[in-house]
Design brief:
6-stranded mixed beta sheet; alpha+beta
């Protein structure tokens, strides 16, 4: 756990940090199913426990949440080793910071030369959380031509859904969440 982490309750679970809890709220608001710390892995003889397993329309995503890039270089190195050995087919993403409309996680996924893009290894930091054309489902996707931002998950092209607005509301809800205050035993003031 990072030194500035605050264990945070949400949805009957205790998250290791408020940042993780905020991402859980974001995922819930978009209707994405997920599990927190679903499964641990032996990665080159070292134990690794991804923060989230997200069941996205385009396939499973293993997600690691960090407050920023520089606070936990050892944890990021562990994530990268896991990403190379993750269950296939799946994607692995490194999320830094709190949910925002233009959050761009580092996505580690497949090889463009393979038949199954969920296999192999590549890195991309240009994908964003996007709605399908009808605005019902959400996944990571490239912004696309002319700034179009839709996940291509097979939904019909019923453009005009409220997907973009739902992403904005999910970010706002996650950022405005207030978690229980804890009393500092030594001074009697709220921490």
């Amino acid at each position: 756990m990072a030194r500035n982490s605050i264990p945070t309750p949400y949805g009957g679970l205790i998250f290791r940090s408020r940042t993780e809890a905020r991402w859980a709220i974001f995922l819930d608001e978009l209707g994405l199913k997920w599990q927190y710390e679903a499964q641990g892995f032996d990665t080159d003889g070292e134990w690794y426990l991804p923060d989230f397993l997200i069941f996205a329309p385009l396939g499973n995503i293993w997600a690691e949440v960090k407050p920023n890039w520089w606070e936990d270089p050892e944890g990021i190195a562990k994530f990268r080793r896991f990403a190379l050995q993750r269950p296939q087919p799946s994607r692995a993403i490194l999320i830094t910071g709190v949910p925002s409309i233009h959050a761009r996680p580092l996505v580690i996924g497949g090889d463009d030369e393979q038949d199954d893009p969920g296999k192999g290894i590549w890195e991309d930091d240009t994908q964003e959380w996007r709605p399908c054309p009808s605005g019902h489902h959400f996944d990571l996707a490239f912004p696309g031509h002319f700034g179009a931002k839709f996940a291509e998950d097979g939904c019909p092209d019923n453009f005009g859904g409220d997907g973009e607005d739902r992403i904005a509301r999910a970010c706002a809800t996650a950022l405005s969440a207030r978690f229980g205050k804890k009393k500092d035993d030594s001074t009697g003031t709220a921490a």
